[in-house]
Specification:
By secondary structure, the protein is α/β, with parallel strands linked by helices. The chain has eight helices and nine strands. Helix 1 packs across helix 6, helix 3 runs parallel beside helix 4 and helix 7 packs across helix 8. The structure holds NADP nicotinamide-adenine-dinucleotide phosphate. NADP nicotinamide-adenine-dinucleotide phosphate (NAP) binds next to helix 1.
Length: 240
């Protein structure tokens, strides 16, 4: 897809991968509308010249706030990037099921609500794209994050079915699978993290090329291992 002249709605553009992505899309000539929740970060991204809608996407009302704010606007690209993961580990403390619900809504329900609301607009455009940001953990889970991994595996499955439904239409469906990236989400976790700008660069390359998946960094290797031995991929990732 030619990004120049397109309008993209990118959720979670106030920090991390999303904040790099909105800058790179703008540099390609796209108009970007983004969304965030933290007031200070929303203000900072507005000061950088972006249109930012404040909404908490972990609830149906929050998703509705964003949907209402963009109703009637021309949108060619929807990037479902906002996401979070709280660990849910019975070996450490009794996990909070309410926190699990919020994670499930943010990572899985909100993208579905946005896709449903924006589909008529996307289908009316000469060419359009839906980008769902999942994770290498959508391929095989790690033990400490069963809720996060389940949401990402769910979004991966949804994305694959959506792609089949929209095959041959003007709406392209891309799944973006980041590896471990240096953002606040992975603070204190692991080493050898990919810089967020490089991850966003690989998303943009995949958006321009019309690929079905952006398997970023180590996720490429994980896909190869998984294609040869899903059991081996699960054994590697479960300890992550
Ligand atoms: N970092 C990684 O290693 C990694 C790996 C695989 C997949 N991913 C996926 O990549 C995407 C971006 O992650 P990231 O690492 O860039 O995360 P991040 O740095 O924590 O940024 C997340 C973005 O989503 C927004 N967000 C978080 N919770 C929200 C909520 N309840 N309602 C509305 N917006 C919310 C944040 O806004 P506020 O700051 O305003 O809250 C921020 O703009 C996520 O879908 C994540 O699952 C990340």
């Amino acid at each position: 897809m030619q990004l120049n002249g397109k309008t993209a709605l990118v959720t979670g553009g106030t920090d991390g991968i999303g904040a790099e992505l909105i800058r790179q899309l703008r540099a390609k000539g796209a108009t970007v509308i983004t969304q965030g929740r933290n007031a200070e970060r929303v203000t900072a991204i507005r000061a950088a010249g972006f249109e930012v809608i404040a909404a908490d996407l972990s609830t149906p009302d929050g998703a509705k706030t964003l949907i209402n704010a963009v109703a009637g606007r021309t949108i060619d690209i929807l990037v479902n990037n906002a996401g979070a993961g709280v660990d849910h580990d019975f070996r450490e403390a009794a996990p909070d099921p309410v926190a699990a619900d919020a994670t499930i809504f943010l990572n899985l329900d909100a993208p579905i609500h946005l896709i449903c609301a924006l589909m008529p607009m996307l289908q009316s455009r000469p060419e359009a794209m839906i980008v769902n940001v999942t994770s290498g953990l959508a391929i095989a889970p790690r033990a400490g994050g069963p809720v996060y991994c389940a949401t990402k595996a769910g979004l991966r499955s949804y994305t694959q079915a959506l792609r089949a439904q929209l095959k041959g239409s003007k709406v392209h469906v891309l799944e973006a699978l980041p590896p471990v990236v240096e953002t606040k989400m992975t603070a204190g976790r692991g080493s050898r993290k990919m810089p967020a700008a490089e991850c966003a660069r690989q998303f943009v390359t995949a958006m321009e090329s019309g690929a079905a998946e952006a398997n970023v960094g180590m996720v490429k290797l994980l896909q190869v291992v998984h294609s040869i031995s899903p059991a081996l991929a699960r054994r590697i990732m479960i300890k992550f």
